[in-house]
Amino acid sequence: MVSFWRPAATGVASILAGVGAGELVSSLFAQNGSPVLVVGAAVIDLVPGWLKEAVISVFGTQDKTVLIVSLALVLLIAGALAGWLESLRPPVGRILIALGGALGVLAALTRSGASVLDAVPSAVAAIVAILVLGALARMLRGTAPTRVAPSGAVSRRRFLVATGATAAGGAIAVAIGQVVSSGYRAAAAARAAFHLPKAAVAAPPIPAGASFDIAGLSPIITPNADFYRIDTALQIPGIDPSTWRLRIHGLVEDEIELSFAELLKLPLEESITTLTCVSNEVGGNLISNATWLGYPIRHLLARAKPKSNADMVLSKSQDGWTASTPIEALTDERNAILAVGMNGQPLPLEHGYPVRMVVPGLYGYVSATKWVVDLEVTRFDRATSYWTDRGWSQRGPVKLESRIDVPAAGRQVTAGTVAIAGVAWSQHVGVSAVHVQIDDGPWEQADIADAISVDTWRQWKYAWNAEKGRHTIRVRATDAKGRVQTSAVADVVPNGATGLHQISVTVS
Ligand SMILES: Nc1nc2c(c(=O)[nH]1)N[C@H]1C(S)=C(S)[C@@H](COP(=O)(O)O)O[C@H]1N2
Ligand SMILES: [Mo]
Prior knowledge:
Blueprint: H1 2-29, H2 35-46, H3 49-59, H4 63-88, H5 92-109, H6 120-142, H7 156-180, H8 182-193, E1 245-250, E2 256-259, H9 260-265, E3 269-276, E4 287-296, H10 297-304, E5 312-317, E6 322-326, H11 327-331, E7 337-342, E8 345-346, E9 356-358, E10 372-378, E11 401-406, E12 412-413, E13 416-425, E14 431-438, E15 443-445, E16 447-448, E17 458-466, E18 469-479, E19 502-507
Parallel strand pairs: 1-10, 12-19
Antiparallel strand pairs: 1-2, 3-4, 4-7, 5-6, 5-10, 7-8, 7-9, 11-13, 13-17, 14-15, 14-18, 16-17, 18-19
This protein binds ligand MTE and molybdenum atom (MO).
């Protein structure tokens, strides 16, 4: 039996090491990509209904535990098999693990809302398991058949210690991964069980003429899965909504503390606001638009009664990130809100669940605090924030910009009528016109889609009569106050890029 158990142990140890590495990577960088959980989710989606019901009727609410335990058993048995096959006919065992890893990657990528990052932990798990199995199998081949190892051979004891330590290390890594991501998992479960309240005030309907039907043009509302994400959080904070509290304090007459339940009871309003990152380069994609559900911050501040010398609100997230927002942007009539909903869904965890700020007209770094837990009313000469401490400007109004989405840069197009289209924005001011320039020709007026509001981007299009050759296309927007977008090139530091977006295409 020696020819089965020891090779099997190499396989089990490599699986534990691989899954441990994968779970650890997942808990740190890709919480949605836990190898065990993505495969578990795929199994749930794939098993026939009768089996699901049978499991639930036998095990009740323990059905998920049963699934995870079964998966673990399958993994360990497959590992034992892989180790045994590897000893008989290398590299068959490693190929088996590679196939298992491929299934994990596939499971990760086919989940709804998945990103490529979610596949990384499964890939890491497979690579580590393959390397470990290769090493342990080599060691096993080198062990002496006798109790006393001749020189050059590995002692049986050393092999057992190495295999045991690898297995234990893997199991410990799995355990650490579980502990590290338990907050995230709990928040994800709470979010899944949470039903967004209805809006007391619905957003005005989006005009039928607000979007053009052009392939490749950014949709007027960005689906949550495609919404850009920028933050400093290596690990997404997992907040238990039942313990979430927002404190409003500092230079106020009356301090306020608000629970999530209390926030949800307030008359929530829907609004459509485009968010932009100050790090968005000209032509970049760090801009997206969503329908938010939330409560106006100005009403809460009115209750707290800021003192007259206050000129800034320092908002703080659960993980200690801060933003300094001019107080007037939170007290004037613009729709600065504490958002709980995004496109009809609870805020996704990576976009700030359970509560974030959305402030029309300001770049995210001075306004859009995700996982917000604290608002301190203060003064610019008394406090600074995460990015203003790092050389970015105190004030960050969004600059007038425009972008060409279609045709994609460098694209080959056929001579004749070619649709050029894109988006233009000047949050809280509005866009009134867009012009397009081909090579060094005159600026031609583009059609602009109807505006949703001054706080959202606007689509534009231009029918170009394209002639053969290589051409440059430029775009330039004009805001609602008649100011023309500058062609002066400015870097994103310290308060946002300027310049005209320009692409080249070949017409044939
Ligand atoms: N807690 C927290 N909130 C944050 C940030 C952050 O790093 N931490 N980044 C800000 C920046 S720079 C931007 S541009 C927006 C991006 O929001 P999004 O990821 O939902 O698109 O969030 C803002 N809110
Ligand atoms: Mo940003």
